[in-house]
């Protein structure tokens, strides 16, 4: 708990906050990794960082813990649901939600087909035909989602915890 900071993690969270803020000035997107041994306080630091960023009101912060999910299809689905949760709920963002859903649809079928033991070739062909019938390729869909995220009133920060505990 932030009030029980016996190991001075709050000071470290402040340092990470400065790095994230500096990165925000330099680029529209980026990746920071907090690496450490199991039990070293990574989750505690992330929670402190999340609290600070939410209090700042300058960020849309969401947490995502992929370790809680049992397969790749669930992981991708929940990641996109987490990302969608930061989009404004008003009517003006309806198209943005559709764009995100379209990108998810373009990415997720391939993953779900690849992970099924003894792939059903009929299903694989159906998934491939749906992907090819779309009016945009994957890069165009990704670019559309990047643009909509850049247009958000506040930048998005996804905090991923326990990524190191996932199997390849």
Which features would summarize this protein structure in a list?
168 residues, mainly alpha, 56% helix, 2 strands
Provide structural commentary.
This protein has helices at 9-26, 42-56, 72-84, 94-115, 121-133, 138-150, and strands spanning 60-64, 156-160. It has 168 residues and is mainly alpha-helical. A two-stranded parallel sheet has the order 1-2. The protein is globular and about 55 Å long. Mean pLDDT is 75; it is low at 113-125.
**How confident overall, as mean pLDDT?**
75
Which class of secondary structure composition applies to the elements? mainly alpha
Report the span from N to C terminus.
31 Å
Count of strand segments: 2
Overview in brief:
This protein is mainly alpha-helical and 168 residues long.
Task: Compile the SSE list and pairings.
Blueprint: H1 9-26, H2 42-56, E1 60-64, H3 72-84, H4 94-115, H5 121-133, H6 138-150, E2 156-160
Parallel strand pairs: 1-2
Helix pairs in contact: 1-2, 3-4, 4-5, 4-6
